[in-house]
Amino acid sequence: MSRFDTYFLMKEADVIEYVKAKYPDFFAPEAVLTVKEIGDGNLNYVFRVIEEATGKSIIVKQAGVSLRISAEMKVSTDRNRIESEILQIQDKYAPGLVPKIYGYDTVMCACAMEDLSDHALMRYALMRHETFPRFAEDISTYMVNTLLKTTDVAMEHKEKKAMVKSFINPELCEITEDLVLTEPYNDCNHRNNVFPPIADFVKKELYEDEALKLAVAKIKFEFMNNAQALIHGDLHSGSIFANEQGIKVIDPEFAFYGPMGYDIGNVIGNLFFAWANKAYTGGSAETQTALEQTIRETCDKTAEKLAAEYDKLVTFPLYRAPAFRKAYLDGVMADSYGYAGTEIIRRVVGDSKVIEVTSVTDPAQRLPMERALIDLGIYLIKNRAGGLNGAAVTEEFRKILAEGRGTHGQNG
Ligand code: ADP
Ligand code: MG
Predict the structure, then answer these.
(1) Ligand 1 pocket check: which of 46, 78, 237 to mutate, most ligand atoms within 8 Å of Cβ?
(2) Count of Cβ atoms closer than 10 Å to residue 299 Cβ
(3) pLDDT at 78
(4) Distance 398 CA to ligand 2 centre (A)
């Protein structure tokens, strides 16, 4: 009997013993180890175990039975299995773009993985004005490879259906369905967290716009019913590590078979927060242009690589027909812009906020910034199927910034 034969939530002191018991060959038997809990997420506990003498280290991530943010919200610990398996699958489809998984343990709901502490999380790095010239190239490669290769146009159908089954993830999907794709438009569970000076604007522009709500209903239905690809499910800039050498994507515990556009849209949407933050807090024109460029390239490289990979991977003659190919690829990009819009809006009015918004405490900056982001989100949702591309969406945001629609809004 080991102490780790029954689930319990580990404290720092337990984790060294855990690593020695479960990964006996990772460190030398005499190694002196130190441990620190470094998690900053809402759901899980992340421990870094390091041997100071050699610098060798390992990450242990354990799923709790309830959310860190709310003891009342219970979520299945199966998400840790899903996360570990997805990272292993993605390492095959997009080699080098995710951390190595050393093992996972369905009893303790914990996995051990490569320590990426020599990388920075994109969200914080962008706030510090750091730029990563490889970002658009690498994130588009990651998305196209992990997404298109797991679809019916590229994969054996029975194998795909077995994957759909293995990665059914109802509880985590419900979080997205409620918090991203419902509540920002009606606050039905009173969980929105609206910056008070913008409350009237939110009521008119989000809660009372029936055309917008119809569009969001369709987008939500797509999320729930389009088992298109094995998606990451939470691909925001806090799930992407980057350094000069490239990127590593972590934290796919929301993964399931859903629309590819959800991942692509999350990446695009989150990049806009960095730009908005710089635009309203006196960021230099140079930083803003660099962010704009990153957004354009991310949109366009993703669309280009999707098309190129499609031509390489797809062999079934009916799917190779030019009109089908165009409809499929256009559909993915339309979804992507729609989900970019829903991501932007939910981070502004929902409870799960981003630092790019919350760190702006001066209402004279925060109010117009939030309005501008909401305007952009609405534009993306309503115009998602209008053949958008990197230039169109960045020019739209430039227009919103310049015309001060964020300042004066349609609602005064
Ligand atoms: P959650 O599922 O709770 O959101 P994350 O997987 O996002 O947890 O991890 C929380 C934090 O722990 C990350 O923001 C990052 O700072 C740190 N972290 C997670 N995985 C690693 C890793 N492999 N290497 C280094 N730090 C990590
Ligand atoms: Mg996270």
Answers:
(1) 46
(2) 27
(3) 87
(4) 30
Determine which helix (DSSP H) or strand (DSSP E) holds 257, and give its type and residue range.
strand 256-258
251 lines ligand 1 (CB under 6 A): yes
Nearest residue by C-alpha to atom 25 in ligand 1: 116
> Which pLDDT belongs to residue 68?
58
Asked if residue 339 lies in contact with residue 363, where contact means CB atoms within 8 angstroms, the answer is no
Q: What b/e sequence results for 397-409 when a residue is b if at least 16 CB atoms lie within 10 Å of its CB, and e otherwise?
A: beebbeeebbeeb
- Which positions ≥6 away from 255 have C-beta within 8 Å? 82, 83, 86, 167, 169, 230, 231, 232, 233
Spatial separation of the C-alpha atoms in residues 396 and 384, rounded to whole Å: 13
What sections of 226-352 are H helices per DSSP? 260-280, 285-313, 317-320, 322-349
DSSP symbols for 272-287? HHHHHHHHHTT--HHH
Q: Which of 378, 312, 387 is nearest to 346 (CA)?
A: 378
For the chain, which ranges sit under pLDDT 70? 41-42, 67-73, 405-412
40 lines ligand 1 (CB under 6 A): yes
For the CA atoms of 260, 261, 265, 266, the dihedral, rounded to the nearest 10 degrees, stands at -30
Query: Whats the size of the chain, residue-wise?
Result: 412
233 lines ligand 1 (CB under 6 A): no
